[in-house]
Design goal:
Largest sheet: 9 strands, mixed
Mean pLDDT: 94
Radius of gyration: 25 Å
Structural class: alpha+beta
Shape: elongated
Length: 467
């Protein structure tokens, strides 16, 4: 045990000694304009990929830039040892466009470090999303190498350049390199902390179905004075149907919608019950919002399915008065799903439910073919336990397991293609101005994140697997 502790102490000491240089390298990385989504930005993406290949090579993880149908992927593979678990580290080096640039205090690709409330904060596009997320991973690898201590895990580094445009080339890349990407666990640093002093691991990510429904009357637009009291009004019909989506107790009333939905584990409900709801909500008020009885707001946000109406249209929506009986009305909805729900089955049940409520002469048309299932990571995974142990040694407050109401298709993609669990975590905060002007990242968090990854590699290296 003493030898193990001295080993980790040596690597942490190396990370400390490296930190000033790490910040300099991070500044260089942020200065490369690697914006995805436009052919004009391909040169910046290629330059960023090449820069990362060089940094991985320096850290003892031989890497190469691999072309795809879109932007390059950086793939690094450490020399493999059969007695160590293999971990895949995922990140993305592409960033959002910076426009409008006149909203930035300093140019978005000229990183600036400013003192904010006694903390050093770096401002640049990509500082938090997501260069500041994967950079500590790479610097932790460097610390192990420069400390002269053998890495306790085999490392695969996968850095893509298309995440901000939906990762269109990633599935084909994974399929083509499946053998090289074989691992025991994938670590994805692309989520947030609970607070500046409390890290979190996201184990539950909701699935998503988008749907548009249009109700058509037997006629086109009509004069409401002549026909308003006798002809079908699609706006009223659709509004009435949508008003019945939720039962009186807040539960989704579409028959079969909850089929397959599992109960939340008691231990997880207990952990979530101890969280401060105000911290989860920030400045958002949930007064007047829907509630499904028997579940706390945090459970509803992270662990229960739901349907939201995103928009309604039809007839006269302009500024002038027009006495029209609309011939059609439409609504867009999003369904957030949890484990056990099949996206296409949910979509079909909704369509059948709507059709069953239409009056004679009316019909419904539907648009929507995108759906992704929820992802649930087993909270009792030994890799989760090891990651929590590492985080708890580094941060002032204990880590927590949380969910998200958002959808992370990448996690399902890696799980389906590689057959492994993904540990989703990260070190950003909600007020880091992600996708906005003056995006930033706290250098103290960068420092602790690097130390955290040093500890995570050590902890996962001690996990007993079937290797």
């Amino acid at each position: 045990m003493a030898n193990a502790q001295s080993r980790i102490d040596a690597v942490l000491a190396r990370a400390e000694a490296n930190f000033a240089g790490s910040v300099d390298r991070f500044i260089s990385l942020l200065g490369i304009p690697s914006v995805s989504g436009s052919p004009d930005d391909r040169a910046g993406l290629a330059a960023c990929a090449d820069w990362l290949v060089a940094r991985l090579d320096e850290s003892g993880v031989p890497a190469r830039r691999i072309e795809t149908a879109g932007n390059p992927v950086v793939l690094g593979l450490s020399p493999a040892a059969p007695d160590r678990p293999t971990v895949l580290l995922y990140g993305h080096y592409d960033v959002q466009p910076s426009a409008p640039d006149d909203l930035w205090t300093s140019p978005p690709f000229e990183p600036a470090i400013r003192l904010v409330d006694g903390r050093q904060v770096v401002y640049a596009r990509g500082a938090s999303d997501s260069k500041g997320q994967f950079w500590p991973m790479l610097e932790a690898i460097r610390a192990w190498r420069e400390a002269g201590v053998l890495l306790p895990v085999n490392i695969i580094v996968l850095l893509e350049g298309e995440e901000e445009m939906g990762s269109p080339s990633l599935a084909a890349f994974i399929d083509a390199h499946r053998e090289q990407l074989a691992c025991e666990v994938a670590l994805i640093s692309d989520s947030d902390m609970w607070s500046p002093t409390r890290p979190a691991i996201t184990t539950r990510m909701k699935g998503l179905v988008h749907e548009k429904v249009t109700v058509h009357a037997p006629n086109g637009d009509l004069h409401s004075g002549h026909f308003g009291t006798v002809a079908a009004n699609p706006a009223q019909i659709l509004s009435s149907i949508l008003g019945r989506i939720h039962a009186a107790d807040g539960r989704v009333a579409v028959p079969g919608f909850h089929d397959g939905v599992p109960d939340l584990p008691a231990a997880l409900r207990a952990e979530w019950s101890r969280l401060d709801l105000a911290e989860a909500l920030g400045s958002v008020s949930i007064e007047g919002g829907p509630r499904e009885g028997g579940h706390s707001p945090i459970e509803l946000m992270w662990g229960r399915p739901g349907i939201d109406i995103n928009g309604i249209g039809g007839g006269n929506t302009g500024p002038a008065e027009r006495s029209v009986l609309p011939g059609s009305a439409h609504a867009r909805l999003s369904f957030r799903l949890v484990g056990g729900q099949e996206p296409e089955a949910v979509r079909q049940r909704f369509r059948d439910w709507v059709r069953g409520q239409l009056p004679p002469g009316c019909r419904a048309a539907f648009e929507g073919d995108y759906g992704t299932g929820a992802v649930t990571i087993t909270e009792t995974s030994p890799f989760i336990a090891a990651t929590r142990e590492a985080l708890d040694r580094e941060w002032p407050e204990p880590s927590l397991l949380k969910g998200t109401g958002g959808t992370v298709p990448l996690v399902g993609l890696l799980a389906d293609r590689l057959g492994v669990d993904c540990i989703v975590m990260g070190f950003i905060l909600g007020d880091d101005a992600i996708h906005a002007a003056d995006e930033h990242f706290d250098l103290e968090r960068l420092h602790r994140a690097t130390r955290s990854w040093v500890r995570i590699f050590d902890a996962i290296g001690r996990v007993e697997t079937a290797r």
